[in-house]
């Protein structure tokens, strides 16, 4: 859906009004269109120049990203990466200021800031726990300062997981993370601390089979296209009324499709039979299907409560468990649940939907350690306000508030969610599990 205010803010009259009235100024975000992950130079820094600093250099080289550790006054940088793992006291946090203050004015539009820390729970001193937890407040605040379409995110490393950094660093430094800001991602938190090198960074999912539910339109269709772009063989699933749209999309992408209702009693077996017959197993499952039936709780019908919850989390749990029991999720597989900012911050008139989406988070965080011994990861993507056909039904005032109440001052695009899913699905993201990643431009109220 077109954001007319954004276009207005960028014409001569709009620019004058935005500047003089202090109105929101949504920038045009750069999104990935192929080619190098980063078109520009990344400046790196470190509090200690320890092993993580060396791992950062290795990860940048693996992604073919041009980088330097020496600041030049005349340079403009597309990204800033700071290794803060060595900060072990409150006083030591000044290293953040000393690195960032001189260089922030040199960050290009739609630039990227990545801070790397150690898991606070693994800190061996009280001072280190203080310092490492402080990185969250620092990064989320900086994400609200950088402006001009830029972002800031934090990556925590469990002990021994620095070698698995490449996929995540590449994602956060690239235009693929256009609408992801103020987020905290933990590597190695479920015990998986290693990741294979990605042989082809343009086709990291080559040879993988991906199943996407709710695939015919909107977010699901974007997921299908992006996973296929990255080399996966895609299988779409949707309900009978959308069969023609689903079939057309699957044929366009050279994939397959399943027509069915995921809440049906036979849905797990139906999916398992298809996967077994056509592919022998599946590598990636994206539980995208979801609906809304919004009413305030005082007016909520039981059937609308149950349907929303079952589609979002009940059916995905049953389907995943059945595929696991049948051995149809391959070693090193990926399970991605789709939550929502509503499941984190709540929303008026959406007690059913918010319960369902919060339930997705609870399910995935319980699943992640259970499947870690098979190298399977489980993560959640939580979209914010997205520019889909659904927003046309939202009253204008609420729609505009949803767009502007984030650090990017705009809604996201379906491809923003799809890019996050593709990153989590990569073999190089093997150490990323049990995470909740908000794709919401950093919401300003309720949650980041």
TrEMBL record:
This is 3-oxoacyl-ACP reductase. It comes from Aeromicrobium terrae. SUPFAM superfamilies: NAD(P)-binding Rossmann-fold domains. Belongs to the short-chain dehydrogenases/reductases (SDR) family. It holds the Pfam family adh_short_C2. One of its GO terms (biological process) is monocarboxylic acid metabolic process. Residues 208-389 form the Ketoreductase domain.
């Amino acid at each position: 859906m077109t954001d007319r205010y954004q276009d207005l803010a960028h014409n001569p009259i709009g620019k004058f009004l935005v500047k003089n009235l202090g109105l929101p100024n949504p920038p045009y975000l750069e999104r990935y269109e192929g080619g190098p992950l980063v078109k520009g130079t990344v400046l790196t820094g470190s509090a200690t120049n320890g092993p993580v600093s060396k791992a950062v250099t290795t990860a940048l080289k693996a992604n073919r990203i041009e980088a330097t550790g020496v600041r030049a006054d005349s340079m403009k940088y597309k990204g800033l990466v700071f290794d803060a793992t060595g900060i072990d006291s409150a006083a030591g946090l000044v290293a953040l200021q000393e690195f960032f203050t001189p260089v922030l004015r040199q960050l290009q539009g739609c630039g990227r800031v990545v801070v790397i820390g150690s898991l606070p729970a693994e800190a061996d001193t009280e001072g280190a726990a203080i310092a490492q937890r402080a990185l969250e407040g620092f990064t989320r605040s900086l994400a609200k300062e950088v402006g001009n379409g830029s972002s800031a995110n934090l990556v925590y490393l469990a002990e021994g997981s620095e070698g698995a950094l490449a996929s995540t660093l590449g994602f956060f430094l690239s235009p693929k993370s256009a609408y992801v800001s103020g987020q905290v991602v933990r590597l190695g938190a479920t015990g998986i601390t290693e990741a294979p090198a990605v042989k082809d960074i343009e086709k990291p999912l080559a040879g993988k089979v991906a199943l996407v539910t709710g695939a015919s339109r909107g977010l699901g269709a974007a997921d299908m296209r992006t996973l296929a772009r990255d080399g996966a063989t895609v299988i779409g699933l949707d309900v009978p009324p959308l069969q023609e749209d689903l079939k057309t999309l699957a044929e366009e992408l050279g994939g397959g499709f399943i027509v069915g209702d995921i809440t049906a009693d036979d849905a797990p077996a139906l999916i398992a039979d298809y996967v077994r017959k056509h592919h022998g197993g599946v590598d990636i499952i994206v539980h995208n299907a979801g609906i809304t039936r919004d009413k305030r709780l005082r007016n909520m019908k039981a059937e609308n409560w149950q349907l929303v919850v079952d589609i979002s989390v009940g059916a995905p749990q049953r389907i995943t468990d059945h595929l696991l029991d049948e051995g149809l999720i391959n070693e090193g597989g990926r399970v991605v649940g789709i939550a929502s900012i509503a499941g984190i911050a709540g929303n008026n008139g959406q007690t059913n939907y918010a319960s369902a989406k919060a339930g997705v988070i609870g399910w995935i965080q319980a699943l992640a350690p259970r499947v870690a011994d098979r190298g399977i990861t489980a993560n959640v993507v939580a979209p914010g306000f997205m520019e889909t056909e659904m927003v046309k039904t939202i009253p204008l005032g609420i729609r505009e508030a949803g767009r502007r109440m984030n650090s990017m001052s705009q809604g996201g695009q379906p491809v923003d969610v799809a890019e996050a899913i593709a990153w989590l699905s990569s073999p190089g993201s093997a150490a990323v599990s049990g995470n909740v990643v908000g794709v919401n431009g950093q919401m300003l109220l309720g949650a980041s």
